[in-house]
Design a protein that fits this description.
The protein has 70 residues and is α+β, with helices and mostly antiparallel strands. It has a domain at 19-46. The protein contains two helices and two strands; from the N terminus they run H-H-E-E. The protein has a two-stranded antiparallel ribbon with strand order 1-2. Strand 1 and strand 2 (65-67) form a beta hairpin. The protein is extended, with a radius of gyration of 17 Å.
Length: 70
């Protein structure tokens, strides 16, 4: 049975370098309105969409220019 894949240098968990308590509080805030574990990913995605800013423009599939106007 294969073991756990070795991580490449410079790559780790997305929480590396973050305060664990801050991460847990953010996850709790994002999922507070979820009725069960099946709604929790939607709560997290909604929080990311509302809070994370992507101030870059680029081309999408087919070469169409895309930019966040928000």
């Amino acid at each position: 049975m294969p073991g756990k894949p070795k991580s490449r240098p410079g790559f780790g968990k997305w929480t590396d370098g973050l305060d664990q308590q801050d991460v847990e509080e953010a996850l709790a805030e994002a999922t507070v309105g979820a009725y069960d574990e099946y709604e929790q990913p939607t709560g997290l995605l909604t929080m990311v969409q509302d809070q994370v800013v992507f101030p870059v423009s680029g081309a999408g599939a087919g070469g169409r220019r895309m930019r966040d106007e928000g």
